[in-house]
Amino acid sequence: MAATVPAVRRANRRTAPSLATERAFWDAGHDVVVGVDEVGRGAWAGPLTIGAAVVPRDKRVYKIRDSKMLTEPEREHLFDRIAGWCRAWAVGHASQEECDRLGMTAAQKLAARRAIDGLGLQPDHVVIDGNWDFVGGGNTTRIIRGDATCLSIAAASILAKVTRDRLMRAEAEHFPAYDFELNKGYPCPRHKAALRAFGPTSIHRRSWVFMESLPWGVHRPPLAQAELFIG
User: Fold this and answer.
1) What is the dihedral of CA 183, 209, 105, 150, to 10 degrees?
2) CB neighbourhood size of 5 (10 A)
3) How far apart are CA 231 and CA 226, in angstroms?
4) Which of 46, 68, 99, 141 is the most buried if burial means most Cβ atoms within 10 Å?
5) Is 128 strand, coil or helix?
6) Does residue 25 sit in helix, strand or coil?
7) Same domain for 154 and 206
8) Is the pLDDT of residue 217 over 80?
9) What's phi and psi for 16, nearest 5 deg?
């Protein structure tokens, strides 16, 4: 029997992201406006992931919202529609090893560069969710709560979130004690209990402060965790 596709809840027009930001840049002569968002920065395991999306001017996919406002089935339902709608989109990752070795600041910049390079288009302007410019280049605008107000950022957030969640679900079968299919590598009581019982896996970020309290002799580099909260 075929699985039932969940209906995506209707977005409130007052709170749904719009094309107002993109139109302002289009009107100013910027043709390729890229929305960028990040997922996985606060996770204990798995990659840091950046989504980049270039949306068209003349078509629309409705019911797009900040990925955090959607359930996992809703995000999955929207993923292919958004991917097919975008002029271009890409997702870039920094592995758990790169997060540890480089620190979160450099790892986020690396993942962003990989995402933007993957678009196959030269950005005229990049709009970033949050108050920290992890893209650089002098052609960026930071938007606080941009994933809730800017359509290309919201699209990037869904593309990044679904891509990373799928990776973590695939890892779950290799590490069944950690519930990666449920927590996606983020902190939760069962994840913490599994770490205390079995120690970190090969996909855990070993530079995090919490690793110091584990009875497995894991030591972290001195700066990487402090950088988690920069920006």
Assistant:
1) 40
2) 9
3) 11
4) 99
5) strand
6) helix
7) no
8) no
9) -70, 145
The number of domains in the chain is 2
pLDDT tens digits along 115-164? 999 999 999 999 999 999 999 999 999 999 999 999 999 999 999 999 99
Question: Residue 131 corresponds to which tokens in the numbers above?
Answer: 């108050």
Task: State the alpha helices, DSSP H only, in the chain.
Answer: 20-27, 72-85, 96-102, 104-117, 146-149, 151-172, 180-183, 189-198
Distance CA 150, CA 124 (A): 17
User: What does DSSP assign to residue 6?
Assistant: P
Retrieve residue 65's tokens: 């919202």
Residue 205 banded pLDDT, cuts 50, 70, 90: very high
Dihedral angle of Cα 58, 164, 71, 34, to the nearest 10 degrees: -20
Q: Which domain holds residue 200?
A: 172-229
Residue 80 sits in the same domain as residue 187: no
Measured CA to CA, the distance from residue 1 to residue 81 in angstroms comes to 24
Structure tokens belonging to residue 19: 């094309």
Q: What is the DSSP letter of 126?
A: E
What is the sign of the dihedral through the CA atoms of 117, 119, 121 and 123?
negative
Assess whether 142 and 66 both reside in one domain.
Answer: yes
Structure tokens at 103: 């620190």
